[in-house]
């Protein structure tokens, strides 16, 4: 599984951070969301899929 | 002859909500079900000079997600916010521009800057302050013993929390949120005696917003007002003076009334649902986010918002024309059995909860993480310091078809 975020779309809504806090983070000085682990293990699939679904601007893509 | 009864549809009548059934969260769930099942794109016509002329109403959860997300087909920047003819943040109808009435790049650039003051991480920093507010609020409640939950508990917490996030000086908060309350319930004469009062409150808020902007330019702080007056890319001001005023009105009205409403409907449901109350008691030291989201779902603090179709298209067999208004009936989408397991039940541990109370698209509630934290902390404090919370009289609702305010929720608390 490979995660990409379209940073042109990201508006730091923060829904992905709530859904998958181990994978996504928005620090104080971040303009857009940071992907902490772009190729996480299968055990993260459910929360990452939830993060992608919840993103209000559909900026998160999961491949594989 | 028909065999199934068709309910009379009064989904936008004030009295439907003012006289709502407390056993169905105050909502006309039967009417909503009929809409979702039989008329998923329903033409609502109005005959009231204060309201728009007509709107296509979408009520299924999935359709609301689509309308909210497809900003290219359903625009927010072509006038109107809800069914009201005049809204302070609608620049097409005499109001000020704000993010909710802006789309595309302009929306994104403003949202990106403001959203940084509302991220989960940023909001968590406020936890200590929120705990202190919650403690003060519960101190007051315990001293009173019996009180109106809406005023004593649900009013002060959002006011102080939003005051902190926005950067409204402590001494101005009561008057600032007093104006917001006036225009949040323009049709309930117990709250707002006449429409002149609404206009006066909006005027006062606008004047004050400019003063506050001036204060933040002179004394920048770590708050949202400072971000509002800051420069954007290239050194130009991020927002025009009109946009600053509009966004202050947007943020204030989005935060105060809605959080209070969610807490009040949530408390009411807990008191009539023994199982949920016991669950709260079992989790009172660290409330899981599921219960907060479930309260937000059943509260549906704003029944709807509207968009404008940007081109002719067909929706569930109806011909929607460019310029037609499309209403997202959030309250109906929150009880759609197509996506919710037993939607008419309050389930504090509901995992799959795609409710639409905050919206689901680019205009999604900016304060959602603040609201969730406020509610968690307040309910934790209230439950930890009481051994019993029970009704002291019936609930009554604000007379409005947009904002689902609770007017009165008498409760009696027993200190631990």
Automatic annotation (TrEMBL), chain A:
The keyword Zinc-finger does not apply. Keywords: 3Fe-4S, Electron transport, Iron, Iron-sulfur, Metal-binding, Transport. Its cofactor is [3Fe-4S] cluster. It holds the Pfam family Fer4_13. The keyword Transmembrane helix does not apply. Transmembrane segments: none annotated. One of its GO terms (molecular function) is 3 iron, 4 sulfur cluster binding. It comes from the Bacteria. PANTHER family: FERREDOXIN. Ferredoxins are iron-sulfur proteins that transfer electrons in a wide variety of metabolic reactions. This is Ferredoxin.
From TrEMBL, chain B:
InterPro entries: Cyt_P450 (IPR001128), Cyt_P450_B (IPR002397), Cyt_P450_CS (IPR017972), Cyt_P450_sf (IPR036396). It holds the Pfam family p450. Keywords: Heme, Iron, Metal-binding, Monooxygenase, Oxidoreductase. GO terms for molecular function: cholest-4-en-3-one 26-monooxygenase activity; heme binding; iron ion binding; steroid hydroxylase activity. One of its GO terms (biological process) is cholesterol catabolic process. Belongs to the cytochrome P450 family. This is Cytochrome P450.
